[in-house]
Amino acid sequence: MTTITPVTLEGHTGLDEDSAAANAKFWESLNRWAAANPGQDTQPEAMRLVALNDTLRRYNTLRPLLLWEEVAREERDRALEQVEVLWRALGDPAATGSWLHGHQAYVRAVEDARIALDMWRDRAADAKKVVYVHDGDGGARKVAYDQILAAGHPPAEPLTIDPQTVTEQLLGNLEQAHEYRTRLAAQTAGLLQQAGAF
Predict the structure, then answer these.
(1) What is the per-residue pLDDT for 189?
(2) I want to staple 69 with a disulfide (CB 3.0 to 4.6 A). Which of 32, 50, 82, 127 is the partner?
(3) pTM recorded for the entire structure
């Protein structure tokens, strides 16, 4: 699986927020700010650091999940397209290959598409677990998110689709078409058998 290096801002990634090292980094950052701003209340800066760490945690968790979902979606779409390509090849009157071998390739492609749909559904469901990266009302998390983008990192927005529903729709279409095509193929296979082709 492709990995993505977590985004680090001001020495924080948000991924180790419960560790002693993260706690030490938090206090180091806060103390550095306090030293640069003597006599000022540290509470707003502490809240800013908390929001930064929370936003980084969500961003750094979601971004690789979105990448894996995208890869699985591309594979899903390729697998579904391959089903169509191989079905069309079976009906090509100019085809010179064995119809039986061509049909076997089509049947395998249908099974590959089923597997690809399941894999995409699982990857998309994982990505759906992160429901937001920032509060869109312009609060401290949105400021932190804008800071991530300003540092040159791509947006990472949670998925809005329902993976289960999409999978059921695509799988339903695949199975309906395959059932119909299986009936057609059985007629062709019967004719080939009568003709002694196999």
Answers:
(1) 62
(2) 127
(3) 0.83
Residues in the chain, total: 198
CA pair distance 166, 95, nearest whole angstrom: 35
Write out the two tokens for 62. Answer: 């979601």
Q: Is the dihedral of CA 154, 156, 157, 159 positive or negative?
A: positive
Tell which wins on pLDDT, 76 or 40.
76
Q: Residue 197's pLDDT is what?
A: 52
Q: Cβ(109)–Cβ(79) under 8 Å?
A: yes
Task: Yes or no: say if 56 and 9 are a contact pair by the CB < 8 Å rule.
Answer: yes
Return the residue matching tokens 């992160």.
Answer: 130
> Which residue in 98, 7, 21 sits closest to 57, CA to CA?
7
How many CB atoms within 10 Å of residue 109? 20
Encode the chain in three state secondary structure: CCCCCCCCECCECCCCCCCHHHHHHHHHHHHHHHHHCCCCCCHHHHHHHHHHHHHHHHHHHHHHHHHHHHHHHHHHHHHHHHHHHHHHHHCCCCCCCCHHHHHHHHHHHHHHHHHHHHHHHHHHHHHHCCCCCCCCCCCHHHHHHHHHHHCCCCCCCCCCCCHHHHHHHHHHHHHHHHHHHHHHHHHHHHHHHHCCCC
